[in-house]
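fyi for ur records
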Amino acid sequence: MNYQFILMKIQTTLRHSFLWIIILLFSETVQGQIITPDSIRIRKEWYDENGHNSLTVEVNALCVLDKGPADGHLSKITALLENEKNKSYIEYDEKNFQMKMILFLESDISFYEINKTRAIFIPFFYCGNGGSDITVSYIIFYNNKKYLFHIEFFVSEDGICTLTDNIKKKAKNITSKKLRKIFVEQIETNYKVIQDFHFN
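which gave:
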């Protein structure tokens, strides 16, 4: 039995162990962190006068109600409507995203049948809505046209909301009279109290 070889092996192992102990004691801890902001992607399909329709809505850095707003990520919403006749796309990124992350719920999307074609209403809100001013924004698709509106409200101390924008003036660019009427009525009737903006 070669005792000298065994002794050298033990010495080498001890040296390596001692070296690892030194490294562990005196090295700085390095941690890697991957931040994935909350996001959502929804898709809806249907048939109407335009044939097969596909709606895709995506929100990056989505405001999650039970988490509250978080800073540092671009908060953006995109909506794409494709059918056999046309493709319409809207992208909106909130410039002040550190204070106003986009708050979006799929259940808020609504459809209206107008002249055998569906109009799509996509409302979204903001986590950073604070103080007495509050905003709801709308993406609307109808008859190969697209619209984006930001509507302002005033909130009293008891949570009652009052429309401060001239909604009829804002909606004047909507070419369909029936669509314009539906939109104005939706804004005037759907947002009366702070809870209508998904704030408790």
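Residues 18-36 have pLDDT under 50 and may be disordered. thats all i got for now
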